[in-house]
C-alpha cells in the first residue's frame, strides 16, 4: 500500500500510527501540496491511502478504520464525531498553533466544550478500552488534538490542570512507540513551517462533509456537542432552513422552462408476476430475511424492511422495473431453541411467527411484491443444486472439527445451544457464536465454563466431520467482482469497510454444515444426518422465495447483465451478503445475478440502551399499533433518525419533538395553509399565476432541492432525502410568510390577483411534496382536491432526469390531517342537526361519534383522551408517552379561516416580542422584582395565547419560553 502525502500534514500522523499498530508496511510517496492524486475528485486532497493500484481511501479516518478494523459502536460514534464536528472547529486552533492567527475569546469558550466532550470519551471508553485495548478512535482523536495540546506548542494554556482525565489519556498514548514513530515520520525535520504550509493548503478540505454542508448553515456548523446516540439529528440540522448559495441565471432559466413545459409521466401499472424487461432498468430489491423466532422491533424494521420499502416505492415512482422480495428465515438453531422454549415443534413455531411478521409488516405499510419463507421445497432443491455445483467444481472440503457435545442430551451442540463466559471480555452470558457485550464473533469451544442451554450440564469437546466452502479458491473471482461494484455500484461506507477487512488478510475455509435436524438436508453420502449451516442456506432463500413467486425466477437470478441487485441489511449481516453468498454463487458458476449495491445501516438503539424483549425495553412491532399512533408517524420518525452513518436512537421525547416541529409545524402547517386558503378564498380553484422574480427564485430553489432529493434517493440516502422534503416545505412556509396572502386577499384587485398567484403556487408545491413524501408516508393522504384545470407541479424538470421521472403525480394528492378533518366534518353534522332541531336521540348519537373522534385525536396528540373539554389538559406521563402527536394540524375552519388565524399568530408574535424586550430591559436596569414578575406574567400569558393560536399545548410554556423538563 502507498501513502501519498505532503510534508508536515498533521492528518498523516493518524495513518502512520495505525500502520505501526497493525504492522502494515506503507510505501511513502511525497507529494506537493497542490498535487491531485485522486483523479475523480474536484480538488486535491492529502493524505491519500492507495489500497490497491488506483483504488484510494482519501478520508484519513476511513484509512485508519481500514488499517485497524473493528466492529464496535463506541469507535464508530467517535470516528464520525471527530470528522464531522471536531475537525471543522479545530481548524482555527491548528492555524493558531503555528502562529498564523489569534484565537478569539468565543472560540476559546468553544474549545472548552470540545475538551469536555473528549473527557467524556476517556471516561465512557475506560471500560471498553481496558477490555480490547487501543482503538482507532484513540488514534484519530489524539492525532487531531496533538498540534494544540502539545506542551509548549499548543494554544490552550493550562489545559492539563483543567482536564486531568484528558491529560492522562493524552500522555499515556504519547509515550507509546507507534505514536512517537508517527510523529517522527511527519514532523521530524519539517518544523512549524511545513505544518503551517500544509494547513493552509488543506483549508478547502477541512470543512464539513458535503452532505452536512447541504443540511447545516454556516453558523450551525460551528456548534459542537459530544457524540450521542442521536447525533445524526443535531439541533443544527433541525434549525437549518434553505441553502445559502445564490441562485444562478442557469438555475432560474431551467426552473422557468420546467414550470412552463414540464409534463407528468403516468405511473406504470404493476402486473404480476413482474419480470425483467428488455430496455428497462431492472432492479431486484431484497431486505435481510428476518429470523422467524422473534417479534421484530423498530430497529429491525428500519434496518431492513422499511428502508427497502422506501427505496422500492421510489423506484416505482421513477417507473423502474423493480421487484421487492423478502421472507422469514426459518431454519437453524434459533428456531429449534424457540420451539423448545414454547413447547412446540419447529414447524409450528415457523407457522406462528411467519404470520406475526406478515401482520406487523402489513400494519407498517411495507409493500412487498412477495413475502415468503425458507421452509419450502424450492429452498431444498435450489440449495442442494448449488451445493452439488460447488462440490463438482472442487470448492467443497471435508474436515473434522472440535465441537462441544452434551452427553446428557446425546447431541453435538450447535452454537446457540451453548452459553458461557466470553473469552475476550469475560461477559458471563455469551452465546456460542457471538458475545452481546463486546460484539465479537467467537467459537463455542473457546467459551469459558460452557453450559448446554437445554440441560445446563457441562459439555465436552469431541471431533466431528463437517463440510467447508473453500473460500480461498474463490477469492480472486470475488475480488474482481468487488473491484467492479465498489466503483460502479452504491455501497455504504460500512459495507465497504467491513467487506474489505474480511478479505484484507485472505479468506479462510468456512464450515457450511451443522449437527441439527431442523434445516435443509445435506445430500452428500456420509453427511446426510447433518443440515446446511444457516448462513450458507439462508441467503439462498432470496432465490427460493423468488421461485415461489414465479416459476420464471431464473429471469431474475440468472441474468446478471440485465438485473441490478440491491441488498438492504444491518451492518452485522454485511460479510454474509458481500463475501459468503457471492462466493457461493461465483463458485457454482451458473451465471447468477450477484449483488451490485449494498445498503447497510448502523444500529438503532432505544432511549439509553438496546432493544430487549426479555427486559421489556423498546417498542416491538406487535405493540406499536396498540399505542394508537398511525404507522406513517412511526415511519416518518424512524426514517428521520435512520442510522445511516452511525448509530442513532429512538427517543420518545425526540419523537414528540420531531412530530411537532417537523411534521406538524413545518410540513403540516404549510400544506394546510396552502390548500385551505385555496378552498376558502378561491372556491378550490387554482388561479391564473403571474410569476415575478421572487416566484422564479423560489422555483429555482425548489428545483435545486429536487435534484438533491433524486440524487439522495438513488443513492439510498433516505434520511437525507426526507430532510430535503422538509427543506422544500420550509421554503414554502417562508414564501407564504413573506407574501402574506391573507392580507393581500382583502386589498385591491391587483393584490387579490397576487394572493391567487401566491396560494396557487403554494398549492402546487404542496402537491409536489405529497408525491416526494409518498415513499416515506404512503398512507397519509391529502384530501383536498382542486376544481378546474390545475397548473403543472413546479420544479420537476430542468435536469437530465426530467424525462425518466414520474415524481410529479396527480394533483389530487394525499392528506396530513385525516383525524382533524373527520372531527371538523362530524362537528358540522352536529351543528346542522341542531340548527334543524332534529330528534334529540339522533343528535346524541352524532355527538357521541364526535366525542369518540376527539378522544382519538387527543390520544394521537399525546393528550389525555378522557380529559374534560373545558378543563386544562393533563400532562402525559413519560411511561405513557406512547401517544405522541400524530402530526395532525389544527383545523383552520375552527379558527375562522387560514388568513384570520395567521393574522392572529402574527399579532401575538409581535406582542410576545415587544413584551420580551420590555422584560429584558427591566432586568438589565435591575428594576424591582415585583415589577419584573408582573411583566413576566404578562409575557407568559401572551406566549400561552400564541401557543393556542398555533395549535400547541399552552401548558408546555414556562419561564423564558423554554419547555419544561421531564414530564412527571
From TrEMBL:
It is found in: Cytoplasm. Its EC number is 6.1.1.10. Residues 815-871, 904-960 form the WHEP-TRS domain. It catalyses: tRNA(Met) + L-methionine + ATP = L-methionyl-tRNA(Met) + AMP + diphosphate. Residues 918-927 have a biased composition (Basic and acidic residues). Residues 68-199 form the GST C-terminal domain. Its main location: cytoplasm. Residues 232-242 have a biased composition (Polar residues). Residues 210-248, 785-805, 860-927, 947-968 are annotated as: Disordered. Keywords: Aminoacyl-tRNA synthetase, ATP-binding, Ligase, Nucleotide-binding, Protein biosynthesis, RNA-binding. It is an enzyme of class 6 (ligase). InterPro entries: aa-tRNA-synth_I_CS, Anticodon_Met, Glutathione-S-Trfase_C-like, Glutathione-S-Trfase_C_sf, MARS_N, Met-tRNA_ligase_1, Met-tRNA_synth, Methionyl/Leucyl_tRNA_Synth. Pfam families: Anticodon_3, GST_N_5, tRNA-synt_1g, WHEP-TRS. It comes from the Eukaryota. Belongs to the class-I aminoacyl-tRNA synthetase family. NCBIfam families: metG. This is Methionine--tRNA ligase, cytoplasmic. It comes from Tegillarca granosa (Malaysian cockle).
